[in-house]
Every structure is written in structure tokens, then in C-alpha cells.
């Protein structure tokens, strides 16, 4: 054991290591995201959950909202965090720099139509984040929601590159009329080269998308027995990926 990183007062559902291997970020239900230096295990700084209207001065007080996701972006040590607003049953994604300040123009919220062209559906929450670089070396940030929607943002232009409503749908039950219910997107992961984005849903399926235009490349059904959710996805290069779900089984797929 090298270090014990202590201080959070709630569940830690997510962590992320910076591209330069200097920092590890931890998201917590206590409403805070902490960034630690890996070499000595000391806390570098703390990000409190902030109000919907981002004000760097207000981050010190926080508002008690849980932080359920965090992800370092592949450029400039930017860090994305997701804050859940329990009372409004909604969520907001923020992008920070490593000094703990909100980056101007990088606030993702359904009320800012110029930035988020496809807001989460009413009652939707962000359940998954993933980031990569596109062919022009610009940062892409993908967001998966509980309402079944998925949006990929281009951080160089602060606009949505593409979006999909109903990225995953609940399978039809034999003998029953189709209800077209959406399934939450619980896992997102980019391939090593950034060409593909894989998503896993409560429908037990894994879908592979073209990262730049949102075209479906292929899909795998039955990725979790007993109609269970796919909870995590990882890539081995650009052609092989693995998924894990609530049934306790890891499945490995090839897309070629």
C-alpha cells in the first residue's frame, strides 16, 4: 500500500487519473471532488458542488449535491465532474482546470442552449462520462444520461458535435405492445485511438458509435443476462472491447 487518501464523508463512486499521471481525482456523494497528487498522496485541492449558475467564488461553500462522475480530459489536464441535483432530479456537468477554477464557456447545462443543444429529458441525470481527442486534436466530451440520451460535445467550440435521443431502448416483451421506453446509458468508453465510442445501457446492450459523426458502427445484444444493465466498458486498442454487468460476467467482443 502506497497511500491512503482519506477525507471524503460519503460513497466514492468514481475516480480518474490525469493524462500526465500526476493527479487522481475522486468524486463523492458528499458533494465534493478532490484532486490528489499521486507521488505523495496529498490533496492538491477540493472542488465543492456548485450552483447551476457557475460562480468560481461560490465553489467554496458548496450546496450538498452529490458528485457521481469525474473524468480527466486528454488535454491540458482539464477535469469534468457531474453534480446531481437531488431536489430537481437533474444533473449538471462542469469542466475545471487543475487549479480548481471553472473554465469559462465550458459549463454544460440544459438551460444553456448555445452550449448543450440536446438537454437531458425531464428528470434525467448524467450517469457516464468519457473523453477523447478527435482527428483535429480537439477534445470531445461524451455524456450519457438516465433518460437514454447521449451527447458528444466539442470543447473547442463549446457546442454539441452530435447527439442521440434514445441511444438505448428497453427491449420489447413478447406478447406485449412496444412501449419504446428508453434505457439509461450507464457506461461510455472511447477506443484507444479515439475512432470509436462504446456505450452500455440498462437494456443489456453495447453499441459502438463513430466518435465524430455519431453513426452506429455495430451493436451487441444480450451483454448481460436476466435483462441486467451493462455497468462498465473497456477497450483493448481499437477493435476489441469488454463489458461487465450486474450478472457478474465479463464479455469480450471484436468489432472486426
UniProtKB/TrEMBL annotation:
Residue ranges of WD repeats: 5-46, 185-219
SUPFAM superfamilies: WD40 repeat-like
SMART domains in UniProt: WD40 (SM00320)
Keyword Repeat: yes
InterPro entries, alphabetized: WD40/YVTN_repeat-like_dom_sf, WD40_PAC1, WD40_repeat_CS, WD40_repeat_dom_sf, WD40_rpt
This protein's UniProt keywords: Repeat, WD repeat
Keyword Electron transport: no
Pfam family, one: WD40
Protein name: Anaphase-promoting complex subunit 4 WD40 domain-containing protein
Originating species: Pycnococcus provasolii
